Amino acid sequence: MADTNDIDQLNSQIMELGEKYWQQMQGEMPSLFDRQYWQAQILDWLMNDESFKVDAFRFVDVLPALQSSTAIASHVRDYLLASDRKLPVLIRSALTMAAGGISSPVATRAIRANVSSMARRFICENDSTRAVKVLRELAAENLTFTADILGEATTSDAESDRYLQKYLDLIRALSQAAETWPTIPILHHAASGPLPKVNISVKISALDPWLDPADHQGSVARLKARLMPLLRQARKHQVFINFDLEQWACHDITYDLFEQVALHPDLIDWPHLGLVIQSYLKKSDDDCRRLLKLSKRRGTPFTVRLVKGAYWDYEVVHARQNGFNCPVFTNKGRTDACYEQLTDILLVNHELITPAFASHNLRSLAHALVTAKNKGLPKDSLEVQMLYGMAEPQRRILARDGYRVRIYAPIGELLPGMAYLVRRLLENTSNSGFLRQSYHEGVAISTMLTPPLAGPELADKRRNRPGAQDCPFTNVSLLDFNEQSVRSSFATALETVKATFPLQVPVVIGGKAISSGKKTQRFSPNDPALLVAQTNMATTAMAQEALDIAEKSFPAWRDQPLEKRAAFLEALADILENDRLQLAALQAYEVGKPWREADGDVAEAIDFCRYYARQARQELGPTRQGDMAGEENLLHYEGRGPTVVIAPWNFPLAILCGMTSAALVTGNTVLIKPATASAAIAHDFYRRLMQAGFPPEVVQFLPGAGKEIGSYLVEHRQISQIAFTGSKEVGLAIIEKAGRTVPGQREIKRVVCEMGGKNAVIVDDDADLDAALKGVMQSTFGYAGQKCSACSRLILVGDIHKKFVPRLLAACESLPMAAATDPGCRLGPVIDQTAHERLGQLITDPPAGAKLLFLGNTPTPGFFIPPAIFEVKEAGHPMLQQEFFGPILTLIRAKNFQAALDIANEGEFALTGAVFSRSPRNMDTARNQFKVGNLYINRGCTGALVGRQPFGGFGMSGIGTKAGGPGYLLNFAHPRCITENTMRSGFTPDLQM
Amino acid sequence: MADTNDIDQLNSQIMELGEKYWQQMQGEMPSLFDRQYWQAQILDWLMNDESFKVDAFRFVDVLPALQSSTAIASHVRDYLLASDRKLPVLIRSALTMAAGGISSPVATRAIRANVSSMARRFICENDSTRAVKVLRELAAENLTFTADILGEATTSDAESDRYLQKYLDLIRALSQAAETWPTIPILHHAASGPLPKVNISVKISALDPWLDPADHQGSVARLKARLMPLLRQARKHQVFINFDLEQWACHDITYDLFEQVALHPDLIDWPHLGLVIQSYLKKSDDDCRRLLKLSKRRGTPFTVRLVKGAYWDYEVVHARQNGFNCPVFTNKGRTDACYEQLTDILLVNHELITPAFASHNLRSLAHALVTAKNKGLPKDSLEVQMLYGMAEPQRRILARDGYRVRIYAPIGELLPGMAYLVRRLLENTSNSGFLRQSYHEGVAISTMLTPPLAGPELADKRRNRPGAQDCPFTNVSLLDFNEQSVRSSFATALETVKATFPLQVPVVIGGKAISSGKKTQRFSPNDPALLVAQTNMATTAMAQEALDIAEKSFPAWRDQPLEKRAAFLEALADILENDRLQLAALQAYEVGKPWREADGDVAEAIDFCRYYARQARQELGPTRQGDMAGEENLLHYEGRGPTVVIAPWNFPLAILCGMTSAALVTGNTVLIKPATASAAIAHDFYRRLMQAGFPPEVVQFLPGAGKEIGSYLVEHRQISQIAFTGSKEVGLAIIEKAGRTVPGQREIKRVVCEMGGKNAVIVDDDADLDAALKGVMQSTFGYAGQKCSACSRLILVGDIHKKFVPRLLAACESLPMAAATDPGCRLGPVIDQTAHERLGQLITDPPAGAKLLFLGNTPTPGFFIPPAIFEVKEAGHPMLQQEFFGPILTLIRAKNFQAALDIANEGEFALTGAVFSRSPRNMDTARNQFKVGNLYINRGCTGALVGRQPFGGFGMSGIGTKAGGPGYLLNFAHPRCITENTMRSGFTPDLQM
User: Fold this and answer.
1) For a 10 Å CB count at each end of chain A, is N or C smaller?
2) What is the three-class DSSP state of B74?
């Protein structure tokens, strides 16, 4: 594009301009770095001590939620005064004063005031009079603004409506005030013409509580419905509206929304709209091209704010946690380089798009200004944007130099504003940030002004290649519904699968499919008229035949090389991954599992295969015991015998696959007794086992009645172990039967048994309520509460119920219920008519003392149970004891955190639990005292992932095994220790001195 | 002693003499290094390839036992032709020819001939005419001899008698022949006077099959009884007798024996006796002083052969395996330096002791000769000894130089001679040996002649210091009965303990000792008249009281820091170690356990404590799962609840301690239900638990009837788990009861259950029969067969029974039976009258088809059952199925190894087993197919050590737990996974790119 000379010349121009500005900025320290403020001291320290920074930010995050001096003092103590923390004397004594003694209330007030004043540097107060005043005052410095309303995450339609209303109010208030404002050319006139005096940035995600890329169309439609009135209002009052761009998950929705809006007849000729390009996105180039095309098509220019992007941590973590392709550059230099490329393109096309360069990086800005100048563009053909409260010297110099500088000014309360504050503090203290480097680290300005180096991206780690043992286990990626192709493939898979109904499910013995006289029919819970499958039910004679084959084929299978069995499992994983869409689609029909949940189930099955193959190599193979010369002791594990796998319908593929693959890879032969409700999925799994190469004689497929076939197998002398997941009643009966050793039995029967749960979520009085609400909703209503891990008890500490319950009920009110095949479904049907009747009965006629706080409406057809919220007063209430397995939540208040824990620990189950708290002390107490198999802190209690959250409980929830965790395979295996005396005739090969 | 100048002068003299000899030796390669022999090629290769050396030596070791060409060919294939072995083309093609094809018989004959001829370089043939001829011929080279009879390990009195007879025959044959030999001054005259022409070296250990340092007096007495007739005969025929010195375990016995003999009136004035000093012994200095004193006291000189020592590998391994102080220098230079110091002392005292310097090391020899010369001693005041077949050039040069050179000439058959051959080959190929360095490595002679460097000994690794996790686990040392002080302390402990009888054993609940109305009396099985203890039997009311305390104290104990519980366990280990003698002594009385077995039991208890403390730190503490930014997943384990420990009497301390300490360290409270027969030992253990600091409320001590107290506890809702070791019947009943979940039960009961065994030892047709016999005797008769691991089936492959059975019966014939308190006891009484009657009945009236091959006599008083050997013909015979728990062995022949394995795998138990074989293929087959929890190759099937042979079986032997192994603790614990979402407000502390 440009030759080397041009580039060199450009860089020296940038250097010249940058150094000029830098000189002018000297003596104008940005206020946060101003030594007047004692916070500057802390900020200094933050940059020196990473662990202090973490705790300080966490403290800042929780502070607005703290209601009393005592609470503030204890959080200061827990976060900032840990005994092993090295703090400067000044800071420690200030904090110690705050945290203790008589002066506590005074000192904590001081702390709150200090943090508030720090926050106020970045956030305008939420009082329209004062906000208007603050925004107005910017003009005195020759600065203009765009105003944004800080919003807490909206979790219900009511909240989104309220947020919309705030914007409407702001438009009214500001446009009214602006009527009296003088027109200042540098601020209110661009090359393209006059500019509105009022400019507002809208946070799109807050306008819909159920925004979801999987439900792209629905999300865009709902947003558009809320946004159009606002835009019409803006146009009417001559207000500029900018669509802010947030996380990657909102990206496509926001762009599509903007496109629909910009082309809407009411707005197609209105230039005062804007959107954002984030240069940290790997696809920002596409974004730019798309917007240029849109502008041409539209015929009216609009504004684009070019930013680097503010959610880098989140995007990287989120992508990693889900196994998505990382949407952002992981190399900082690439983001900066991309920024400059996009700057070029935008300036070339300044007639289609009015560019706004938002950055505090002097190099990026100087590059834009020099480039514009070289292209002969006037200064008012672009604008510079900076954040309120940051980089004050720069903004002054640029304004003085004749540029239009717009300040992004958030308006709001401290509580929802803290996330914003933390992002700003992060930016100020980030190692690679311009502000830190220039002011704190004292990096030379000439270095800061050199062109960005686009270094290499982090390599994509392919950890799960077959046999890989030298790196941590990585879960298979979930489907990334951000991708249009993924959404449409899923929809197609639903159609394809439906066309095959009704499926025929045979009994399969020794690889031979058998029809039996007795058949059952399976209808879809989404629509009881849809026949999904017809299943042949095995007889005991068939079970006996299967047992004989399983016993006969066992020794050879046990003695296969471990590597061979592990390789079969990895082949199975690949097949499941390849067929993941069809496998998930069938779940949506047969068991009513919504898109994401169905995909999660398939992904878990794939993970189980790869994890167990890997663990088999690590755990089963021989390990040397002791290190004694003259002897070699090798401990290894091998299969125990025919194993019956009795699987549930709620994770129809994952749990079946987990138990079966564990039993097989350790060298056992398996008899699968699937749940009748999910027999078609189980048969799909069985067929893939065969495809993967498992010999037909090592797996038998026996759909049938639990009471008949299940019992026959469990009690049989030829069975060596039982893997069961299901109800407590059945589980305990199996354990009792397995305990009886019958004549001719080879092995004492082992039982791997996962049973129910009555899982509690505790919301502490300092919890992040956005996170808590999201966690409770997901844990309670995910797959209609039909998970053993589901939340069914909610324990609210102290006064938090006052804030939390209304939001919870509002969220339930707007929870989208739909058939599981619908991507917008957030609450699908329950499994069958029996469950539907049982749960309906419970809601209609709950035990005495249970107060129904909320009950939703029910769509038809399908076995839908609406969300139901009960409240009880007594800790021992039956609603807190019995497992319901449906979308029913019972809440109870606890006077303090310890009382909450005591309630949580009551009852016979001990499976999962969650705590939302920001008190380090309470989190520690929960770690020690909340006695469940899987405890989650600051997230919901469902969704354990293979290899990351080994899953399983104790009490009456299970025997204490951990599916998807280390040691799980050993439940299916026998240890053998083989000792060789290696000394012969006094000669020892391994003797080393 | 000597100043630097003297030393320098000495060294230059040594250098001069050494180099002179070296020059003379050039061209006189010792025959093994002579290129004429194709073995030289292999020897060369041995030195280049350590793994080939191992296999080649193993092949040489087994070769004489191979009866057919097929057997030889298959061993060549398995040992020498492994496909991944890199061999020189020449050797590979020779071996391939030998191993395969039609020419096989010819080639294998060639191999046998070659190895035989190699052996014949070191061993004179076992034909008295030919042996005499060979020895006679040495005189032609001016060499004389000492003749030794190679003996297989003697395992019965009959064998020792036969060995003695061989010596008597040799004395007669040689002395008769010598009558015609001319007297050669250089050979037959020393400074002290004329020397016998016949000189014989006696291998002392072969003269008694039960030689044991623990039974020092008995061993010396028995040896003396056999040796005195031989010595009288020797004196009569003018034959010199040298006492050879073998392993360290024979050292004190040999020295005491020599002293008694040398001072015996019949021999006190006879100078032609000799003994050995091994300079590799750290105590060789003491040996030297002691012999000088003896000579003074005696008034007649004798000869001392100064050697380096030939059992270095064995001594090091044996000491390490038992945790003894290593008796030999581990630094080779120290051995050489010590040799020179002792040389000095011996030469100074040449009038008391006639020195013989046995070495092939030119430096050591030159040092001796120069030192003697400097002291003005004539050449015939000393002699040089070398081994037959080695270092021929040296011996010629020295003889030529006028020294008396005596050749140590072993006479014998190839079979027993192979161990000797391997030792010689080792010596020739050892990295640090003079022969290899000088001939193969070409190290400069000047280097070889420099003074030995006494480098540092290997540091004693104190691995079991409390909390040590950074090194492998090390078992506590066994008592080293080589030490006189240990023997006498043990005897004292027996007396001390006996003085406290009868012991009073209370019930102890919450730390309070309680008497109950019901008492039982325990008499010693050694002597039914000796009342050892009176035990209070707990009532169910007491058990309930104990349960209430155990349940109440559980949560606090579970939530103690792991480190605290581990520290208690380590304190307990220290207390047990401190009191080990008393604890072992009580076992000798209460349960009739012999010295070494009782010590082993206490040592195992100590090991359990330390191992479990260590494993608790490694296995229970939190481990991070996954490595995902934004979340922290920690998996840890914690206690499950009150645990009843039902312990057996046969390992009255070890198993009780193992189960109890595992349950406690994982955070469970424990109710101990000891075996009634060993209640006093159990109470001793309980008291030490309290001393170690375990709170009284976490351990309850409940002696009582199994049917009453045991059942009450097992079925109780307050019990969370049961640890049981005992019979199959009781074990299965416990498992069945535990399977029934009773109302109010908190946890599903887990059962850790070790039951019986019917363990088989297979002796292959190429087995090392010395090792096999030792292994079978120990495994069968150790603690009178009252171990679940004991051998009770012996399976003999092919024709091996012809050689093996007569030796086995002879060994049984002479097996010493005695009270367990007697150090000479090899077979003690069984546990009580009931067992005595049951076993007696079995022997009197065995199932049809069982042929009694041997039955010993029975001493009185005490519940003694003599060794009994049965033979059966059918694999399914009841004698091969039922567990007897006594000193009864049933043998059966198998036509081949596979048939033997099939027999071994029959039956319901799968605990231990052993294979004696030298066929790599059969050993591999056994590894794969011999399905037992603990398989031993080339050693007996008892004596599993904590941390080295994790112990436990499957089938009806147990559930597949491994006491003393990794993962055992997890049987007593629940996993909990605690997941924290570490991302707050989009900020993640642990995100690193």
Assistant:
1) N
2) helix
